[in-house]
Design brief:
Structural class: alpha+beta
CATH superfamily of one domain: Cytochrome c-like domain
Helix content: 25-40%
CATH class of one domain: Mainly Alpha
CATH topology of one domain: Cytochrome Bc1 Complex, Chain D, domain 2
Bound molecules: heme C, copper (II) ion
Radius of gyration: 29 Å
Distance between the termini: 70 Å
Number of strands: 12
Shape: elongated
Largest sheet: 5 strands, mixed
């Protein structure tokens, strides 16, 4: 009895606390464009006109700003004065090719401090879709549920609210009646204890039939929603998903791979998922989609995005040290933009200079989870200064790190292992294109 009151009060206090906390959390604008980063656009005039990079005009597709104008796509507007580096010291020519990569400095971050561009080392270029994926996630919604972005999720929400409402109703009804009875029939002087009731047909039939009906209805609605959730429509955009420690890889129909999930709005998307190592789980609250990803078999998920924006994506199955780092973005594009993403990302894969391709691979293929470039060992050795150095292997022999050693380390990590590190690096045999492998090697070489 007393514990029940304590329980009720603590639940109320908790709910109130959570409410306050969520009210203080910065709410991203529900549908409007996430505020454009001021630095990129804030200083068009002060820079002398001489600094305008003449060659770095955005490609004919209209540049990163969608011509059609999506509400949510705050692609970096390449302001004419944005180029922090003098013309000529920017990226080598290839990346100014057909790919729609914004000129260096167009990325919002460039407004803060001009990147130091040493000769021979290309400035990091961030594609518009990667900039988009790093926008703050849409954290809208209310106290009970996050913002809903999946057509098939509406039924789930109703079910959730229905079950929650019913739980509240019965909790308070039962607790209320209990409190009332305890007070009303409590033992006190001058009051005789009631004899315990033995049997009451009406009462027993009522409390059997009503809950049975409730449970049958719950089963029916739950089953209906479940069937809908696991049955993708015939026509769906298919995307292959490989989860590994500790990175996502989404492979689109034209071969583009990315660690963020880019999808078109108002089109069903079907995910064909597998894991390269251990159990992972695809979880994106805005889509009400959660599905385990199992090594050596395929599991599926589908959703139909109803709104454009950037949403959270988590791994929801503990998968080791950096499990918590497997958080990425689901970017829902308006349909034309999705095609533009596919084309631009493909062009980027073809046109990027090797070091940049390698740098992209380093983050997008998940090497970054285990290898740093600043000299601190993480799960594996740091890449800083390893090229050309002589290292000692587990069997005591020494070897000089060259292209072949790096190649072998990536494709067959355990064949020449270093002492002091766990044999935890997965083999990337068959997972990297020859060009990507070359890029990674060049990238590691560049980390002197
Ligand atoms: C799950 C953690 C993990 C991931 C992911 C990973 N590695 Fe490793 N890597 C290791 C460990 C541990 C070693 C050291 C043991 C060994 O040689 O197998 C290592 C060794 C290496 C070496 C040899 C370095 C040396 O100094 O001997 C290279 C090169 C390398 N990794 C490259 C990569 C690249 C490139 C990627 C991404 C495509 C990658 N690794 C992803 C854990 C990882
Ligand atoms: Cu995981």
């Amino acid at each position: 009895m007393k514990t029940k009151i304590v329980l009720v009060t603590s639940i109320c206090a908790f709910a109130l606390g959570a409410r306050l906390a969520s009210a203080q959390a910065p709410q991203a604008p529900a549908a409007g464009p996430p505020a454009a980063q001021p630095p990129a656009t804030a200083q068009p005039a002060p820079t002398p006109p001489a600094a305008t990079p003449p060659a770095a005009t955005p490609p004919s597709t209209g540049g990163p700003t969608p011509a059609g104008g999506t509400a949510e796509a705050p692609a970096p507007t390449p302001s004419p004065a944005a180029g922090p580096a003098a013309p000529g010291s920017t990226v080598p020519a290839p990346s100014a090719g057909p790919g729609s990569i914004p000129p260096p400095g167009a990325a919002p971050a460039a407004g803060a401090a001009p990147p130091v561009v040493t000769p021979g080392q290309a400035a990091p270029v961030k594609a518009w879709y990667d900039v988009l994926a790093e926008q703050p996630h849409d954290t809208g919604g209310n106290f009970w549920l996050p913002v809903l972005a999946n057509e098939a999720g509406a039924g789930v929400d109703w079910l959730y609210i229905g079950v929650l409402g019913m739980s509240f109703f019965f909790f308070f009804a039962i607790a209320g009646v209990t409190i009332y009875f305890v007070v009303r029939y409590r033992h006190r002087p001058g009051h005789k204890a009631e004899p315990s009731a033995a049997h009451n047909d009406t009462l027993e039939i009522t409390w059997t039939v009503i809950p049975t009906l409730i449970v049958v209805f719950l089963f029916f609605f739950g089953w209906r929603e479940y069937i809908e959730m696991v049955t993708p429509p015939q026509r769906a955009v298919e995307i292959q998903v490989t989860a590994r420690k500790w990175e996502w890889q989404f492979t689109h129909a034209n071969g583009v791979t990315d660690s963020n999930l880019h999808v078109p709005a108002n089109t069903a998307v079907r995910l064909v998922m597998t894991s390269a190592d251990v159990l992972h789980s695809f979880y994106s609250p805005a889509f009400r989609t959660k599905q385990d990803i199992v090594p050596r078999r395929y599991t599926f998920a589908w959703f139909k995005p109803t709104r454009t924006g950037v949403f959270r994506l988590y791994c929801a199955e503990y998968c080791g040290t950096d499990h918590s780092m497997m958080k990425r973005a689901v970017v829902v594009h308006s349909p034309g933009d999705y095609e533009r993403y596919l084309a631009d990302a493909q062009a980027a894969m073809i046109n990027l200079p090797p070091i940049q391709l390698g740098e992209r691979g380093y983050t997008k293929k998940g090497c970054v989870a285990c290898h740093t470039t600043d000299g601190t060992p993480r799960v594996g050795p740091s890449f800083k200064g390893i090229f050309g150095s002589t290292i000692t292997l587990k069997d005591g022999s020494t070897i000089t790190v060259d292209e072949n050693y790096i190649r072998e380390s990536i494709l067959s990590p355990q064949s020449k292992a270093r002492p002091g590190y766990p044999p935890s690096m997965p083999s990337f045999e068959g997972q990297l294109k020859e060009k990507e492998l070359m890029g990674l090697i060049e990238f590691i070489k560049s980390k002197k």
